[in-house]
Design a protein that fits this description.
four-stranded mixed β-sheet
Length: 198
């Protein structure tokens, strides 16, 4: 693998989960995802397509308990892969945002790939689950991701009646914001007036 390629292959194995993830930031939105939670697979696929990245994810988790460990650990491993693929966060646009409608839902996401982990997640869902996915786990996924990636992420669900649409709007908006933030900028070093990010 050339150093110029923005790719990463990360694994995480615990007593609760076994996660295997391969990422190509400069892909075409192709995906092969099997987490054992169908709706979560759908969300990760939507994110990959809208971020225009290639993503392979395979997870064996303790779904007999619930989906928490599977979803959280996927977020952690994806965050690790993003950090590895982006390197020192130099040579990229760094910031990205998206206001994304999906039928009744409207989600706003703003992202800073700047080395500092922080999550503001403001989304109220009408139901406890969608298709076997606990809606409260959306926050846990993004919390794991930003902690491992070193990103600041603000997510707000502005409107939403159907939780499928609400979750999908959030994941798609994140994909678009990530694509903007990770976009290469020729001749650009680290985008910071102080010359360092943290």
């Amino acid at each position: 693998m050339k150093k110029t390629e923005r790719t990463a292959a990360c694994k995480r194995k615990t007593k609760e989960t076994d996660v295997d993830l391969v990422l190509n930031l400069d892909g075409a939105g192709t995906f092969n995802i099997d987490t054992g939670i169908g709706f979560f697979d759908h969300m990760l696929a939507a994110m990959a397509v809208h971020a225009s990245l290639d993503l392979n994810v395979s997870v064996k988790g303790d779904l007999e308990v619930d989906g928490h460990h599977t979803v959280e650990d996927c977020g952690i491993v994806l965050g690790q892969a993003l950090k590895e693929a982006l390197g020192d966060f130099g040579g990229i646009a760094r910031f990205g945002s998206m206001l994304l409608p999906m039928d009744d839902a409207l989600a706003r996401v703003a992202l800073d790939a700047g080395g500092r982990p922080y999550l503001k997640f403001d989304a109220a869902f009408a139901n406890p689950s969608v298709g076997g996915f606990d809606t409260c786990l959306a926050r846990e996924f993004f919390r794991g991701l930003v902690s491992a990636a070193g990103m600041t992420l603000h997510i707000r669900l502005l409107e939403g009646e159907n939780d499928h649409h609400s979750c999908e709007a959030i994941f798609k908006a994140f994909g678009h914001a990530l694509r903007q933030a990770a976009a290469p900028v020729q001749g650009q070093g680290i985008l910071s007036s102080k010359g360092v990010l943290v």
